[in-house]
Structure formats: structure tokens, C-alpha cells
Write a structure and sequence with these properties.
- Keywords: Signal.
- The protein is mainly α.
- The protein folds into two domains: about 150 residues, Up-down Bundle (AhpD-like), CATH 1.20.1290.10; about 45 residues, no CATH class.
- It contains twelve helices and no strands.
- Helix 2 packs antiparallel against helix 3 and helix 4 runs antiparallel to helix 5.
- The chain is globular, with a radius of gyration of 22 Å.
- The N and C termini lie far apart (about 55 Å).
């Protein structure tokens, strides 16, 4: 009799443990399925900066800091996006951020500065390091002769690998996933760059941004860049997700 009671007790404990694991897994899935407040802020800040909408950028920067982004993370978002929309937009974004920080300081708000970028200690030339990072992001070997625009204008291939994927992507203030959110926000906002948007949406999936998060991303772009840009970005996203499924 005692043996049966012991077995029953063990089964009950096992059942409770399995139920707990299912609940935890469900909670994890729910959390992963939606953009976090900091991710939403990264997308909004990147899009508004790329658009040059400084009036709406100010409250977005405030919201980003309140959501938990450090000062250095916000700076890095605005630094990163210059590679896709140019120095003029990026510098105006940084100047606007300076104004926001001054206003917050005057109100007695002390924002967390956060960590600086670590020194780069990778082996090999910048070109080789950038090439390796690009291969990691795209999950595609970067071997063989140059093709397409890279073969047509080899200098841009060098700049892309040495500067964008080595100088910028190697910096550790933002994760690869965060940098991809910046990138797709900028490309969607400037528009008419579907092949590049398609590539970076695919990279976003590669680095752990879920399809549900990317669908939510479209709703933010609709608010920051307008219905037309959001519709165009959604069309590209639908194609990327379709190809992934197939």
C-alpha cells in the first residue's frame, strides 16, 4: 500500500513539474513574440532620425531613455544609422539628443550613461573580419569572386566589409539583433531599397528577431514613416517569410 502511495506521490510531483515547465515555456514564447519597450524605442528613434522628423524625435528619445536605453545605446543607434541614411541625418539626430539630455538634466533627471564600446581585438584585417561577420549574419559563405554591384564597383565592397561590418557591427554597445532593428527601420523609412530591406529582414530572422516581432515592426513604421512606406515594407516582409516557410 505504501509503495502505491509513493508511486502516486511521485506521479503527482512529476505532473506538477511538467505543468510548470509548460507554463514557463509559454511565458517565454509570449515574451519573445512581442517587441520589448527598448526594441520599440530603437525602431522609433531610428525611423524618425532617418526621416528627419526632429519634432517627434524629441519625445521618442525621452521615451527611449525611460524605457531603459542607456545614453550610450541611444548614441550608438544614431551612429549606426548613418551608414544607411548619411551623416546629415545622423548628426542632426545626435544634436537633437544633446538637447534632450540638457533638458532632462535641467529637470534633475540623471540618465544612465552605460558602457562604452570595448576595444576591438579581432585577428586579421578589417576586410577579413567584416567578411566573417557578414557570413555569420547571412549564414552564407563569403567565398569566390565578387558578384553584382561588388564586382561592378569593388571599392564599395571594400567599404562595406571594412567599415560597416567591421568598424560598426563589431562594436558591442548594441547586439546584432538591435543593430538589425535599426537597419530595417532606416531602410523602410527611406524606401525604394527593397533588395537591401529583404536582405536585412532575413538577417533579422537569423539573429533571433521573430516573425511576430517583424510584423509588429511594420505597425511602428506605419506610425513613424506613414502608411505607404509601411505597406511597401510589409510586402517585402511577406515575401521573406514566405520564402522561409518554403
Amino acid at each position: 500500500m505504501k509503495q502505491y502511495q509513493l508511486i502516486a506521490l511521485l506521479l503527482m510531483v512529476l505532473g506538477m513539474a511538467m505543468f510548470s515547465n509548460r507554463v514557463n515555456a509559454q511565458q517565454m514564447t509570449t515574451q519573445d513574440a512581442t517587441l520589448s519597450p527598448t526594441e520599440k524605442s530603437i525602431i522609433t528613434i531610428a525611423s524618425l532620425t532617418a526621416k528627419g522628423d526632429l519634432e517627434n524625435l524629441k519625445p521618442a528619445l525621452n521615451n527611449g531613455l525611460e524605457a531603459g536605453l542607456t545614453v550610450n545605446q541611444v548614441k550608438e543607434v544614431i551612429v549606426h544609422l548613418y551608414a544607411y541614411c548619411g551623416f546629415p541625418r545622423s548628426i542632426r539626430g545626435q544634436q537633437t539628443f544633446m538637447e534632450v539630455l540638457d533638458e532632462r538634466k535641467a529637470k534633475g533627471i540623471n540618465d544612465i550613461v552605460g558602457a562604452d564600446a570595448s576595444a576591438i581585438s579581432g585577428n586579421g584585417t578589417k576586410y577579413e573580419r567584416g567578411k566573417a561577420i557578414l557570413a555569420e549574419l547571412t549564414k552564407t559563405p563569403q567565398a569566390g569572386p565578387l558578384k553584382g554591384y561588388s564586382a561592378f564597383a569593388p571599392a564599395i565592397d571594400t567599404f562595406l566589409k571594412e567599415h560597416l561590418f567591421a568598424d560598426i557591427f563589431e562594436r558591442d554597445i548594441l547586439t546584432y539583433a538591435q543593430r538589425e532593428l535599426v537597419t530595417i527601420a532606416v531602410i523602410s523609412t527611406i524606401g525604394d531599397a527593397d533588395p537591401m530591406l529583404q536582405g536585412h529582414l532575413s538577417i533579422s530572422l537569423n539573429v533571433g528577431v521573430s516573425p511576430d516581432k517583424l510584423k509588429e515592426f511594420i505597425t511602428i513604421i506605419k506610425e513613424t514613416a506613414g502608411r505607404k512606406k509601411a505597406k511597401s515594407a510589409k510586402k517585402v516582409l511577406d515575401e521573406v517569410l514566405k520564402n522561409r516557410t518554403e
